[in-house]
């Protein structure tokens, strides 16, 4: 059998069919697994971040047209040569050596070159598709079928590999684009993070600077307030001391000359001292340090009790109107401080109406809810007794309202106000656990509302002791023991009590006083300082009551925080007379305690 001849009995159909079958087998064995691998493992190729395609090493070949078309011609010729060499082995398989050529060219070349290689391979393989006489018969059906199958399978290989290559190129490009986008995103995130960090650092620095500036501003405001307070105190005290010292010096010189006409100067000294004492009480009230003596009170009764005094103080041009609510709840306050607050507010209202007008004092039950409390500092939601004072005066601007409670702040002309009236009211209300609010508009008048907590506990409203119009005098049968460690203060207290008609003994310490009582001396009343070295006034009173249970006790002190005052409130059942006190104040306190 010659080279290229079919064995006897084999036809062109057989050779074409067998070769087609071998092509299909090749397709199934190599191309399909390659496709499956490419589809399932496409991510493997994507791992080569910067590489293109399924076989990145052939890119330089594919990018040069002369090399591509050289391969398209050279590889089919190589297949032809291999077919010639293996002619006896591959008899009946005319296309066997051309399928690898098609596969290689499909991988290495572009579509146009691959089509050229397929056509050239078909032409070169045609001589091997011969009949039994070694002649290619174009009219032979089997030859045409074999050639058609070769072209079809080759075309499928070329199309599939180029489709796979295109898909993988697209996937690789997409992955590269995604990687690039991620890199850009990371760069932008890093840039934005850096910008935010810098912005936060700037904000932190600005916040620290603002906090520092606010602290400096608050310190400045505090120092300004302290300066205003100290300046006001110094100014007022200097004026009062000038009155006292001047009056006493003139009285002394007259008495040295034998002139007894000194009453007016002594009255001036007393007036100056009284004003000084009142100033200290107002300052203590503003600072919430004054000792309060709270008791169950009926606000309507307190207002009615001040009606006559208020009408005299307001004058004829101001009409006073009371609007007292029915069923008013009870409250627990220091009655004297409520009266002082009402008088201060009424006088301020009178001064705000120089041409006269109506002043209204109103009481009612009120409830402050959570919303109101959250909008106002130091306010506890709950039920309150409301005391409101309204005038039809000139009103206040917002700036004036913001400073209305500042000590020594006043809009009145010089000499017509100390600027402590509203400060005293504010301090008393806050110390009593209440709330105060100003409502005012320029030209529309002012309303000041005081909220005092409702009293839920037991206790009846105690009727006030009716005091004599004149200074009440004592009796020699009432013996008083005065205990004071300051000799000068003790001498004055003893002198006042003897002037009032009481029998008085004195002691410089708690121990000395207790020895007198333990020796059998009985007293009607103990008048003792609270703060003393060794034994305090409270300790002395407790020991003295064990010796004499019916002993009456009055404490006196110049301190605001001591053994008988806690949280600004005088302990229940304690009678206290704060220093400085006048003869009349001591006389009325003695009367109240002895009658009570």
Automatic annotation (TrEMBL):
Family matches, as PROSITE patterns: HIS_KIN, RESPONSE_REGULATORY
Record protein name field: histidine kinase
The entry's keywords: Coiled coil, Kinase, Membrane, Phosphoprotein, Transferase, Transmembrane, Transmembrane helix
Residues with PTM 4-aspartylphosphate: 529
Membrane listed as a keyword: yes
Stored Pfam families: HATPase_c (PF02518), Response_reg (PF00072)
Gene Ontology molecular-function annotations: phosphorelay sensor kinase activity
SMART domains, sorted: HATPase_c, HisKA, REC
SUPFAM superfamilies to which the protein is assigned, alphabetical: ATPase domain of HSP90 chaperone/DNA topoisomerase II/histidine kinase, CheY-like, Homodimeric domain of signal transducing histidine kinase
Residue spans crossing the bilayer: 68-86, 98-129, 141-161
Documented EC number(s): 2.7.13.3
Record's catalysed reaction(s): ATP + protein L-histidine = ADP + protein N-phospho-L-histidine
Coiled-coil intervals: 168-202
Occurrences of domain Histidine kinase (ranges): 232-456
Response regulatory domain segment(s): 479-594
Top-level taxon in the UniProt lineage: Bacteria
Keyword Transferase: yes
